[in-house]
Design a protein that fits this description.
Layout lengths: L14 E12 L2 E7 L2 E3 L3 E5 L6 H7 L10 E9 L2 E2 L7 H7 E4 L10 H11 L6 H11 L3 H4 L12 H13 L5 E5 L7 H14 L4 E5 L3 H7 L2 E9 L5 E10 H6 L4 H7 L5
Parallel strand pairs: 4-9, 4-10, 7-8, 8-9
Antiparallel strand pairs: 1-2, 1-3, 1-5, 5-6, 10-11
Helix pairs in contact: 3-4, 3-6, 4-6, 6-7
Length: about 270
């Protein structure tokens, strides 16, 4: 028996995720330690930090994608509206419906634009007006005007920036509450990147966004809160990530409390 996940309409809190002393392991190796963070609703939270610090690892814990890695396990708690996402009665499939993911490399299905959007809702047994849902999802990703006359064209024939917006439309078609974005602009040109950033500002009116980015300018432009992840190596050279500092974005970039944060955001290391 599984427990239905709560959504923001069922709680009074403005905190969507809260982690409590989370340690993440691959086998015996501790990849990330002591993660304590809150993610507020209807805001953009950015994860920044050097390679190997655990940003994407933590992001994927929020919708249990790391479950697909056999050696993965964690201790501590990841709470979604107060519910432990890793409790035995929580259905990981339902978690991934409510907490969607957009990946670094645009990955549209080799199907029509229409069928890319309709695939998830059909799989979940959606009974409403599919044409309306497809249109609304494409509008939500600022794509409708670009593709309304070519819905039968292949999604893979779109430009890179359009493919990424199609993937965002596909993610919101199943009506999630949260969108996780793992380097969503890394494969895009500067113009497409700015379009995605503008879209993020529109999306946060309806969704909570958590993004991983190596782009300091993007984090400072697009996010409301920023968590700076750092990394520490042991005597064997194994690297374990941790959160050095987490605050409103203007604090992290203009008046950070930690020297390491200041050095990273100013480009002196990382």
């Amino acid at each position: 028996m599984t427990t239905n996940l709560q959504t923001s309409t069922k709680t009074n809190t403005d905190v969507v995720f809260r982690t409590e002393n989370v340690n993440i392991y691959y086998g015996d190796f501790k990849a990330v330690r002591d993660v304590n963070i809150e993610v507020p609703r209807h805001a953009i939270t950015a994860f920044i930090g050097p390679s190997g610090c655990g940003k994407s690892t933590v992001l994927r814990c929020f919708n249990r994608l790391n479950d697909l890695i056999k050696s993965f396990h964690l201790d501590g708690k990841i709470l979604y509206h107060g519910q432990d996402l890793y409790a035995s009665d929580i259905d990981a499939v339902e978690v991934r419906r409510q907490i969607g993911m957009v990946f670094q490399q645009p990955n549209p299905f080799p199907k029509t634009i229409y069928d890319n959007i309709a695939f998830g809702p059909r799989l979940l047994g959606y009974k409403g007006d599919m044409d309306e849902l497809v249109e609304n999802s494409l509008r939500g990703a600022a794509m409708w005007d670009d593709v309304k006359d070519k819905l039968k064209a292949l999604g893979t024939d779109l430009s890179g920036g359009q493919q990424q917006r199609l993937c965002i439309a596909r993610a919101i078609a199943v009506q999630p509450e949260v969108l996780l974005m793992d380097e969503p602009c890394a494969a895009l040109d500067p113009i497409s990147t700015l379009k995605i950033e503008d879209l993020m500002q529109e999306l946060k009116e309806k969704y909570t966004l958590v993004i991983v980015t190596h782009n300091m300018q993007q984090a400072s432009r697009a996010s409301d809160f920023t968590a700076f992840f750092n990394v520490q190596a042991n005597e064997k050279g194994q690297r374990t990530g941790y959160i050095e500092e987490h605050d409103r974005t203007e604090v992290i970039f203009q008046s950070p409390k930690q020297k390491a944060t200041q050095e990273y955001v100013s480009g002196r290391f990382g």
